[in-house]
Amino acid sequence: MAAKRLFSILGDSISTFEGCNPAGFRVFYEEERREVTGVREARDTWWAQVVDALDGELLANGSFSGSMVEGAGFPAGDSAERVAALARDGQAPDVVLVFMGINDYGWGGADAQAAGRGNALPTCLDVDALGEQREPGLAASDAAERFGAAYGSMLARLRAAYPHAEVWCCTLCPGRVVGRDGSTFAYRLRGAAFDAYNEAIRAAARAHGCRVADVRALGRDYEGLEGTHPTARGMRQFAALVLHAMAAECGEPLPADDPALLDAPPSAERCAEPSCIGCPHAASTGGKWLLVCNRP
């Protein structure tokens, strides 16, 4: 019997789980949050469901809650430490699943994260030298381009460290607040278009010889506790989206009537405003931002 392929996960809070990440890495799905979201066991996570469906085995989960791709150093995804966390006991992964970027979109850039004192600031930064704490506002006009450059640099690190690994980059996917019938996602939180970040992911992946699991192209939402962190149902929905996107990339699409896929509701961009800053329908655009539009 052939050995199972070894999978490693590179992500942010959505991909963490208590006891599955390296010591010292911030975790979202722990303690009471496991009960609140219904994501009670590691097998409930999107990544465990994907690895299981592909008959693989988890090698390492190097995800870090709150982390961005862009940043001056660890815990940014574009850092040597994050890439090194994808190996274990000298064993390199056969497959790496990358799902990062939602914090880059939410903050609008590493400078805004630093100014707003985000909870996953690069450890190399001297906080006292950053000046007065400021609430984030509009993203810089080149925010998505800078994200794309950082994403490409991260993939270059991955390729250098694990030249034989198959690397899959998941595009970002809109979340929907649990219990809401219609779309709640904020598509231009700080003026930078959400899909500009997805275009950056696609371009970086192609440039570095990686595969794209284009979940965004499927046009569906997943259920999130507050619109970002998946509930147990949201994890099942997102796992189905990833599996369908991977199959489509391989030219072997899964059945379109798959109940797991159809459980994820269709996405809908309901607002044409240039940004959410100052909008009364925006749930929060400050340092405790939420990717939620409450427009009726």
Structural write-up:
This protein has one domain (6-293): Rossmann fold (3-Layer(aba) Sandwich), CATH 3.40.50.1110. Helix content is 29%, strand content 12%. The protein is built from nine helices and nine strands. The protein has helices spanning 32-37, 46-53, 80-84, 102-107, 110-115, 143-161, 194-207, 232-249, 259-262, and strands spanning 6-11, 57-61, 95-99, 166-170, 175-177, 211-213, 222-224, 282-284, 290-293. The strands form three sheets. The chain has a five-stranded parallel β-sheet with strand order 2-1-3-4-6, sandwiched between helices. A two-stranded parallel sheet has the order 5-7. Strands 8-9 form a two-stranded antiparallel sheet. The chain is globular and about 60 Å long. This is GDSL family lipase.
Instruction: Return the structural class.
Output: alpha/beta
Q: Give start-end ranges of low-pLDDT stretches.
A: none
The assigned CATH architecture is: 3-Layer(aba) Sandwich
CATH topology term = Rossmann fold
Total helix count? Answer: 9
What portion of residues is helical? 25-40%
The fourth-level CATH homologous superfamily is SGNH hydrolase
**Beta-strand content bin:** 5-15%
How is the largest sheet built, in terms of strand order? 2-1-3-4-6
List keywords for this structure.
5-stranded parallel β-sheet; GDSL family lipase; 9 strands; 296 residues; two-stranded parallel ribbon; 9 helices; alpha/beta; 29% helix; Rossmann fold
